[in-house]
Amino acid sequence: xxxxxxxxxxxxxxxxxxxxxxxxxxxxxxxxxxxxxxxxxxxxxxxxxxxxxxxxxxxxxxxxxxxxxxxxxxxxxxxxxxxxxxxxxxxxxxxxxxxxxxxxxxxxxxxxxxxxxxxxxxxxxxxxxxxxxxxxxxxxxxxxxxxxxxxxxxxxxxxxxxxxxxxxxxxxxxxxxxxxxxxxxxxxxxxxxxxxxxxxxxxxxxxxxxxxxxxxxxxxxxxxxxxxxxxxxxxxxxxxxxxxxxxxxxxxxxxxxxxxxxxxxxxxxxxxxxxxxxxxxxxxxxxxxxxxxxxxxxxxxxxxxxxxxxxxxxxxxxxxxxxxxxxxxxxxxxxxxxxxxxxxxxxxxxxxxxxxxxxxxxxxxxxxxxxxxxxxxxxxxxxxxxxxxxxxxxxxxxxxxxxxxxxxxxxxxxxxxxxxxxxxxxxxxxxxxxxxxxxxxxxxxxxxxxxxxxxxxxxxxxxxxxxxxxxxxxxxxxxxxxxxxxxxxxxxxxxxxxxxxxxxxxxxxxxxxxxxxxxxxxxxxxxxxxxxxxxxxxxxxxxxxxxxxxxxxxxxxxxxxxxxxxxxxxxxxxxxxxxxxxxxxxxxxxxxxxxxxxxxxxxxxxxxxxxxxxxxxxxxxxxxxxxxxxxxxxxxxxxxxxxxxxxxxxxxxxxxxxxxxxxxxxxxxxxxxxxxxxxxxxxxxxxxxxxxxxxxxxxxxxxxxxxxxxxxxx
Length: 714
Ligand SMILES: Nc1nc2c(c(=O)[nH]1)N[C@H]1C(S)=C(S)[C@@H](COP(=O)(O)OP(=O)(O)OC[C@H]3O[C@@H](n4cnc5c(=O)[nH]c(N)nc54)[C@H](O)[C@@H]3O)O[C@H]1N2
Ligand SMILES: Nc1nc2c(c(=O)[nH]1)N[C@H]1C(S)=C(S)[C@@H](COP(=O)(O)OP(=O)(O)OC[C@H]3O[C@@H](n4cnc5c(=O)[nH]c(N)nc54)[C@H](O)[C@@H]3O)O[C@H]1N2
Ligand SMILES: [Mo]
Description:
The chain is of the alpha/beta class. Helices cover about 30% and strands about 15% of the residues. It contains 23 helices and 26 strands. The strands form seven sheets. A six-stranded mixed beta sheet has the order 5-4-16-15-14-6, covered by helices on one side. It has a six-stranded mixed barrel with strand order 21-25-22-24-23-26. The structure holds ligand MGD (2 copies) and molybdenum atom. The site of one ligand MGD has 35 residues, from loops.
C-alpha cells in the first residue's frame, strides 16, 4: 500500500488546496521544517493560474488555532449561552443514536431535520454528500432546498437555456472587447484564481471594463473604466431600459433572435409598453434605479456595437426579492445582442457551471426523496409546532458544514427557532454562533488532516490532489468517519464500505482525464487539456439548428415554458421588472429609508476566518454610507452607528464614502453574531437585519432589506 508522504519526517513539502466554499481552488504548498509544519507558499504550475490568497496561506493558523474544538461537547447551560462539558465519543455517539431511534420510532423519520451546506467542498469529504448519504439511508427525513448562493440564477438558467452549465472558461475573456461586471466583485470574492489575471490581461488587450453595482466595489476601484450605479434589486428595470434602447434604435442581432430564441415578440411588447402601456424607457428606469439616463443609453449601444461583449451577471443581484428576473433579463440581452456562444461573449445569467471533464463522483446519494422546506423557511418550520398537513415537528436537528445562525436570514427569528428545535447536533471546527445552540457539538477534522481532491466550482480546467498534511488531534474524526460510526449504531450497514483511499481511487478511475491515485499524489496538479476556451452554447450557435438547446422549444426561451407552466403571476414567463417588497418603491421607506446590501468579504469565506487573527483585520467590516446620507444624520467617518429595522439592530463603525450610492448602505456578511444583553448585535452580523422571505422562484433575498441608521449615543 502506498503511504501518504508525511512532511513531519523531514524538511519536505506537500501540496493541498482549501476545501472551503470560496470559489477558488489554489495551490497550497505546505513546508515542514525540523519536523514541524512551518509555512505555506503558493505558485502557478502547468501554465495554470493557481496563486492562493492570504486566507489560504494562513490555513496553518486555522488548523492549529487554540480555539479549535478537539473533544465532543454536551450542552451544560441554556441554548446560546455557550456552556458545555466535554464527554467521550462513545457517550456522544450513543446519545445521538438514541435520539435518532427515539424520534424515528415515535414520530417517524420526517421528524429528523438535517441542514447541510458547503463547509467542505472537496470531492470525498464533502459536507453535503456525506450528510445526504447518511440521512438518505435512514429514510424520508426533512431537509432544505434553495441554494443560498444562486437559486435565482439556477432557476433562470433552467428556464432560459434548460441547463445550469452557462459558464465559459475564463480565457474567453481575452477575446472580449467589452466586459460588464454586473454585481460582481471578484477582486474581493474568489471565483477561481484565474479570474483576476485574465481580467487584467483582457484589459491590457484593450477590453473596456464596466461595473454595474450600487457600490464602487474593490473590483470597480481597481479595474473598471466606468462605474454605473444601480439601486439594489432594480437591475431588471435597467436591463429592460437597455433593451428599449436596442429595440427603438434597431440595434438587435436579428439573425440570432430569429434562429435561436423563442418568445422575443412578447418581450418586445413588454419593453415597448405595447403590453402594459408603460414603455421601459431610460427615463422610466432612472426613476427606479437611480442610474443616469446617459449611462443606460451608452451601455446599451456599447453592448451591441462592441461585440464580442461579456455581460458577467453576478449572483448578488439575483439574491433579491425577484432575483430570478435579473438573470432572465441578462440572458435575454445577451441573446438579442448576439453575445451567446461566441468567442469573447457570455451567456449571462445562471450559475456559470463549466462542463469540462472534472471528477463528478462523490459519496453516492441514495436518492431518497426527503420532505423539503425552503432554506429561508426553515425557521418558520421549526417554530410551527404542527407544520401543515401530517408532517411531524422537528425532534432532531442535525447541522453539518453550516453556520446556520449567522448565515441564514433573520437571526432573531432564527434564535427563537433554535430555542424550539428538537435535539440539536453539529459537527464543527469552532464554537460558532450556531454551535452555541447545539446540544451536542462534535469536533471535526480540518481539510489538511484528510486526503482528498479539490476542484474549482466555476472555471479553471484542473483538479488538485489534497494530501493529508497533518494528523488530526487525537480522537478527532472527519464527517465521514463520524457518520460511519453513527450508521453502525443505528443499524445502517452500507453507509461506508471503503477506506478514503479506496473511494478516491474509485472516483479517479471513473474519470478518463485523470491519473491513478499514486500518480496524482506525486503530481498534485491535473490540468485538463483544451484547445482554446470552452464557451457555453458554442455548439448550438455554430451548428445552426443541429444541436437544439435543452428547452421545450429547443431554443433560448425568452418566453419560458417552464415559468409559464407555474402559472404564478410573480414568476412571469418573460423577464419582467417587479418592484420589491422592501425596495425603493415600498412605502416602508418612510420608516426605513436605506437599502442594505451585505456582500462577501475578501477576508472571509462566508463566516469562516472571522475568528482567525492574521486574517480578520484584512477586511473592511465598516458600514458603508454615502456622504449625503451621513450628513443628514450628522454621522462622521469612524463614528459608531446603529443599523436597525423591525427585525433587529446591530452596531457598526461608519465608513462615510462617495463609493456607495445615496440611499444604499452596505456591510460585509459573515461577521460572527455577538448579541449584548439587550439583543443588539455587537458582532456586526448583517443577518440580524435581513428578511427571511424568499423570491417566488426560490432565491435567497439577502440583498433586499430596508434599514435606518443612527449615530450611537455614547
Ligand atoms: N446577509 C447575507 N447572508 C448570506 C450571504 C450574503 O451574501 N449576505 N451569502 C449566503 C451564501 S451565498 C452562502 S453560500 C451562505 C454560506 O453559509 P454557510 O454555509 O453557513 O457558510 P460558512 O460560514 O462558511 O459555514 C461553514 C461552517 O462549516 C464549518 N466547517 C469547515 N470545514 C468543515 C468540515 O470539514 N466539516 C464540517 N462539519 N464543518 C466544517 C466552518 O467552521 C463553518 O462554521 O451564507 C449565505 N448568507
Ligand atoms: N473572499 C471570498 N470569496 C468568496 C466568498 C467569500 O465569502 N469570500 N464566498 C463565495 C460564495 S459562497 C459565493 S456565493 C460567492 C458570492 O459572490 P457574489 O454574489 O458575486 O458576491 P457579493 O460580494 O455578495 O456581491 C458582489 C457585488 O454585488 C453587489 N450587489 C449587491 N446587491 C446588488 C444588486 O442588487 N445589484 C447589483 N447590480 N449589484 C449588487 C455588491 O455591492 C458587490 O459588490 O463568492 C464566493 N467567493
Ligand atoms: Mo454562496
